[in-house]
Design goal:
By secondary structure, the protein is mostly helical. Helix content is 66%, strand content 2%.
């Protein structure tokens, strides 16, 4: 909205045309989202407390978590509000990729909201059934993947790109839809599984979103894409604004979510943020780089899968508790130590992912 306004005002004063630059609007998106989060956050958290929208804690989890019972949850609604508002303010709304990202994020946020709300009403940790949750996620993911496939104008936009290996494109054809579905649903649930400690999920999300914003900017710029030998995807540069909004809103949320947390994002935020990262990665054709940079999310998910398979086949557990962050808590690591060490690992993985821009 502001972007369109400034472009109109540019006919009166050319100085307004400075807002056509994606890098400037990306920075403004970060600042806008951060300021909105810090401004709205206290009022939002106060309302959650007023209506007793508090976290339900598992009885079989780490004992240190019992004190978190009743901490305001569903704070992901704050993230969603800020991300969507900021994106609408600074993006070129004529770009259909922007709407795919916005609507997919909102839809996954709505699924998370229903899940959180059911947990609150039943006063236990069981929300939506697994079948219902994955069914709804599948509907949204297939719809988003189908739209992206329909919007593709070049073969490269539906091909799998291998990081660190130049000039290798694996055409997916109609299989792009199925592949993108798995990326969206998988990333959404991976972030959700990681969201178990104060600040644990939001910091890696911020880092990965920032890196994906760089990839999107490069892939949307014909000159940079050619120089760095990455796929040129017209219009993908607008994802930089969306990623900027994710970064700013994430930083604002972290202000309240850092240990000891004043609010939790809940499934409302975790499912939505995972889907948002997946959409940007798909648009920029960097799904495999997302796997690298989001390695913490991947390992957390694998720990759950390994734990379930091991217990069903042998009756024994590989980890003291899954997801993995709970395993370390059970070993006696303080919560902040687990979170910070996972953040450090994410920094390393994000740098490795970014290096794929040049190492080809």
């Amino acid at each position: 909205m502001l972007y369109a306004l400034f472009m109109q005002l540019g006919s009166l004063y050319h100085g307004f045309y400075v807002f056509q630059y994606l890098t400037l609007r990306g920075v403004l998106a970060i600042l806008t989202a951060l300021i909105l989060s810090l401004f709205i956050g206290p009022f939002f958290i106060a309302r959650l407390r007023q209506y007793k929208i508090g976290q339900i804690i598992r009885n079989d989890g780490p004992e240190t978590h019992l004190s978190k019972q009743g901490t305001p949850t569903m704070g992901g609604a704050l993230i969603l509000l800020v991300v969507i508002l900021t994106t609408l303010l600074w993006s070129d709304l004529r770009n259909p990729l922007v709407w795919v990202a916005v609507l997919t994020t909102l839809a996954f946020g709505a699924i998370g909201f229903i899940d959180d709300w059911r947990k609150l009403r039943r006063k236990n940790t069981k929300g939506l059934s697994a079948r219902a949750k994955y069914g709804l996620q599948s509907l949204v993911a297939f719809a988003a993947a189908g739209v992206l496939y329909a919007l593709a104008s070049k073969p490269v936009e539906t091909s799998l790109i291998l990081p660190f290996i130049p000039h290798v494109l694996i055409p997916l054809g109609i299989g792009f839809i199925l592949f993108s579905y798995f990326v969206i649903v998988g990333t959404s649930n991976a972030v959700n599984l990681t969201d178990g400690l104060d600040g644990l999920a939001i910091v890696p999300t911020i880092m990965v979103a920032a890196a994906l914003g760089i990839f999107a900017y490069v892939s949307g710029n014909a000159v940079f894409a050619r120089y760095l030998d990455v796929p040129w995807v017209p219009g993908s540069g607008q994802m930089l604004i969306f990623c900027g909004a994710l970064v700013g809103a994430g930083l604002g949320f972290l202000w309240f979510n850092t240990y000891p947390a004043e609010v939790f994002m809940g499934d409302t935020g975790a499912l939505a943020l995972g889907a948002a990262l997946a959409i940007v990665a798909i648009v920029a054709r960097q799904e495999l780089v997302l796997v690298i940079m989001g390695g913490v999310f991947v390992v957390e998910t694998l720990s759950v899968i390994i734990q379930v398979i091991s217990f069903r086949l042998t009756g024994k557990r590989v980890f003291r508790m899954a997801p993995l962050h709970h395993h370390f808590e059970k070993k006696g690591w303080p919560e902040p130590r687990v979170a910070v060490r996972f953040w450090i690992i994410t920094v390393i993985l994000v740098l490795v992912g970014l290096s794929s821009l040049k190492i080809r």
